[in-house]
Amino acid sequence: MSTGREEQVVDTCYTTIHTLDKQKGKKQKRVQYMKKDGKFPVMFLKAPGDWSTYFVDIFTTLIEIRWRVMFLVFFLSYIISWLLFGFGYWLIAYVNGDTESVENNPCVENVRGFTGAFLFSMETQATIGYGFRYMNDYCIVAIVVVTVQDLFSCFLDTIIIGIVLAKMASARKRAQTVGFSKFAVVNLRDGVMCLSWRLGDFRGNHILEGVVTAQLVRCVRRPQGFIAWSYQDLTIEEPEIALTTPATIIHKLEPGSPLYSVDPDDLLEENFELVVAFTYTGDSTGMLHQTRTTYTPADIRWGQRFKDVLKVGKKHYKVDYAFFNETIWVPVPMVSAEAFSRKRHPEDGRIHVPSVKRNGGTGHVTVEITEEPVVQTFL
Known about the structure:
Elements: E1 5-11, E2 16-22, H1 52-56, H2 58-64, H3 67-96, H4 114-125, H5 140-168, H6 171-175, E3 178-180, E4 184-189, E5 192-201, E6 207-221, E7 227-233, E8 240-243, E9 247-252, H7 264-269, E10 272-281, E11 288-295, E12 300-302, E13 304-306, E14 310-312, E15 317-319, E16 327-329, H8 337-342, E17 344-345, E18 350-352, E19 356-358, E20 361-363, E21 366-369, E22 376-378
Parallel strand pairs: 4-12
Antiparallel strand pairs: 1-2, 3-5, 4-5, 5-9, 6-7, 6-8, 6-10, 10-11, 13-16, 14-15, 17-18, 18-21, 19-20, 21-22
GO molecular function: inward rectifier potassium channel activity
Catalytic activity: K(+)(in) = K(+)(out)
Main location: membrane
């Protein structure tokens, strides 16, 4: 096929299931709008040396940098400040003649060279306490420099501690403990074809309030040659959820849905991404968090449902996350939701779907839809 993928037919004794495999030698990779971990593969191209936007909001810049860079900034900020103020004390001693004669009254006792000045600077800023080196009260310039260094030390400590605490409480780390399933599935629920995916909190504490959103994103190439993004919102059934146990997020394929007229064959040719997000407030920190991921057409499994992960024990509900991403086959018509609704007969609750392959032969399958939720019976 033109998409660089080949179609396989798997006989499940119920209907024909279409899967996607990459063809050897015909790999066609497309840059995704968003990666699975929620990061966007976007690189901003700016003029060389233009770092003004990062320095204007330096606090946010320091929070977003990596920890190893943060530790480097932490160490360099103190070492450089010790060296600068040490140079100032050495300059005072040089002007006062303390470096040449030991007979005069020094501004700082026992500071006769740069090494002594550096040690005095470190003792002052780190508040170690003076012993062998101390300042005399008749040297006004040295008193002014010590005062400035004390104020600078308090300011620097506040900034460094604040940045470290902000990085430790970063919402990104909490978002990594809330995740979506690797795949989305299409199946029948209460006689309606639905697209669904799973959401779970992998920590012991529970999220009691959160909102789920979903968008269908397409890359559109304009006739003029530039690229634009098309965004279509998907209606979520019960978008506000309490994530005490893994939840299944459901989008009904009804009129108005961007996927209403898409069947399994069309899905192979589609070029879109389903971007889903879960925005919630952490119960421990009170901070706003967001977890997001994306599903491509290859991540959507038609005719499957998720395995049950919730079991009832004697005293507790038990959640087995080993089955969080596991799916099983279920009988689902291999037609679009639009065709499913159009061909359904209200008088007997039956629809006739196209012929399917089974054990090398061709036959017709009649699907009977009952009123019980998520129950499909093939005759």
